Amino acid sequence: MAAIYTTPLARFPRSVCPKIHDRNFNIECSAELSKRVGDARPTNKGPATLTTTTRRKMMEQNVGCQAATGVRSELDSDPNADLRQGIADFYDASSEVWEEIWGEHMHHGFYDVAAQDVSLSDHRAAQRRMIEETLSFAAVPGEDESKRPKSIVDVGCGIGGSSRYLATKYGATVKGITLSPLQAARATALSAAASLSSKVEFQVADALNQPFPDGQFDLVWSMESGEHMPDKEKFMKELVRVAAPGGFIIIVTWCHRDLLPGEVSLKPSELELLDKICKAYYLPAWCSPSDYVKLAQASSLQDIKTADWSDNVAPFWPAVIRSAFSWRAIAGVFKSGWKTIKGAFAMSLMVKGYKQGLIKFTVITARKPA
């Protein structure tokens, strides 16, 4: 079990990550979008990438499918609606260029400490390794077929890379949720190309209000989506709610460092750096690894474990920066618009945060009592 921390939650001033003011979010149906967008369909040359024109067409069509997905939009009265819309727009704009350069996995890679001269293919292998290292750390059964997870939810699924990987590894059914209509549509198209439509399903939904019954999933998987959650306590409670008795809960996320004894907040310079990152990537206030441990304990979870993998992900952001300044990537970034451009310029801030020991790449795993 992880060490238990007693430092208080870091308090962020109101200036950190203010609301992002955008238009109201209109929930769309990923399956309907996949049907409507011709060049999102797989071809005999493999899954096609979405063009900028396609993305714009998807956004303009604004297909309302609450009944089809079972998701209801109540965001007009939701104080987090603007943040949610900002997140959706950010990933609608940036997912295509990410996929073109980095492929289907939209998360850090796991590397040997002090790894150098890593090729792009090695980086993609490191992203798959991240999934395997996480499952191993959580001790999710793999050898015994009777104990493998049979139902999985991928919270913040991106374009479905983890969902397809987990479905293939375990033979499980996987449901992925994202705020981005484009991501949900692209995940659906890629899964069809991989002949996994019967195993995986994607929809636009809020991680803080998931459209699933209590106790549905043997494995609740959140790979780098927790940092977007404005209410970490509600996030944890929702993950616990949808987990089956005895089910595994896995959170891999960005945290700030734990507070030192006597500290009541991070340093002003640290808060300023996090504020800049927040504004670029649509993040609310951060929390520490020990804060997550407390939330897991408050939810009566068992076998709580945490690890700091910051050293193991160190090569990732420098590699992303190098790839972002290739001619192909530069063209894609500028076609994607200001949100993606702003995110590209903020990548060096992530490197700075890691080097300062401010940002911690954290894994938290636990089990719901049987």
TrEMBL record:
GO terms for biological process: methylation. Residues 153-251 form the Methyltransferase type domain. Gene3D superfamilies: Vaccinia Virus protein VP39 (3.40.50.150). Residues 152-161 are annotated as: SAM motif I. It comes from the Eukaryota. It comes from Wollemia nobilis. Residues 242-251 are annotated as: SAM motif III. It holds the Pfam family Methyltransf_11. GO terms for molecular function: S-adenosylmethionine-dependent methyltransferase activity. InterPro entries: Methyltransf_11, PiNMT-like, SAM-dependent_MTases_sf. This is TSA: Wollemia nobilis Ref_Wollemi_Transcript_28745_1349 transcribed RNA sequence. The keyword Kinase does not apply. PROSITE patterns: SAM_GTMT. Residues 215-223 are annotated as: SAM motif II. Belongs to the class I-like SAM-binding methyltransferase superfamily. gTMT family. Keywords: Methyltransferase, S-adenosyl-L-methionine, Transferase.
